[in-house]
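Appendix B, Record 12. Input sequence as logged:
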Amino acid sequence: MEHNAALVAAMDAEGLKQADLARRLDDEIRRITGRDTQLTERQVRRWVRGEAKWPQELQRLALEAVFKRSAVELGFKPRTKSVKEDSLRRRTFVNAAAGTVSAAIGASAPSRIGASDIERLRGEYLSINSDYRSRGGNQALEDRATNLLARMQSELSRSAMSERSRTMLYHLMSDVACSAATCASHAMALERARMHMHKAGMLAGLSGSSDAQFHVWTSTSTLAARRGDLVEGAAAADAALRQAISKRDPLYKSLAHMRAAANAHSRAGDLPSLERALSAAERSFDRHTAVEERAPWIAFYGRSQFEGLTGLSWLRAGKPERAESHFHRTLAAIPDNYAYSRLLYTGRLAEAQAEQGEVELAAHTGSQALEMLQGVDTKLATRPLVRVREIVALAGTKDGCVREFLERSNR
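Logged structural output:
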């Protein structure tokens, strides 16, 4: 019998003994179901020894919530060849022997979930997105998304629903997993973000939605670029461009080209490819209409973000003078409820000014960004200001605004 080395490694990384993990899992299951459980150290020991290869549904949800990775990544082996088949067989068994299964997991017979229930869950997802727009991504927001995802996974296993409701729920779950990945990425927890993104891809595939798969690929492109993997960043943007929704909706097509520009060509210094991608993004953006019904997640990609991502592409390509004008246009167009974007692009504007040697102006703009930091908890937002401080400090100027910026940014 092989020991579960992946689970043992995850426990060691978290500093958890077998009894500690049992208590953590009890807490997670109680949070998901509202009921007390009696998971024992003996059960954890059976997983560690490889005696139990695939935990029950609620136990898996709890394990994934504790370690923020899938059961498969924790070394467990599904009993069926596909997650979808396993879900179907589990629901069939629940319907056929509800009393036995309910006793095992502490739940009653499956309830019916429909469109109104999914809308309620979507409301929670939109609340997470709203907080992200205001404060940026961080671990607290990532945890909210992860917890919401765990509850939706529980609904899938415990509730009866139509095929249409099931695919809608898979789509929503994929979007929530993308949000968790984005928040983890903004907290610079890149490996954790990658695990969320893997889950989002699986859920998008189960949903059969071109929109969900596009969302995963464009998010994967950004995450790959943040890790420094420009090849994967370009490939993911190309995969988004091949999605059906990209072919029929010019806004999606524009975003796919923009991701290729910002995440791959600009970082590689490939100016001809960058020019082509930005031109293609602009042509498609100018063709889209605002009246079309679209998924909530892509609402961020309006004129302000188009200009901002264009400016970011030029800044990364070493053309700060071209970037600056786009950042000015971005800041003029950002909606009031996108406070995090205003902070981020104000910092980028300061960076573009500093890169051009305009240190006094960069210090002034950087000071404006520092004023916006209150209430924002994301490591990504401070990165442009770190770069501005480096450039301004090297200039050695005695200007009062510069000295004030250096003092405040060092706190």
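Residues 1-77 form a domain with the 434 Repressor (Amino-terminal Domain) fold (CATH 1.10.260).
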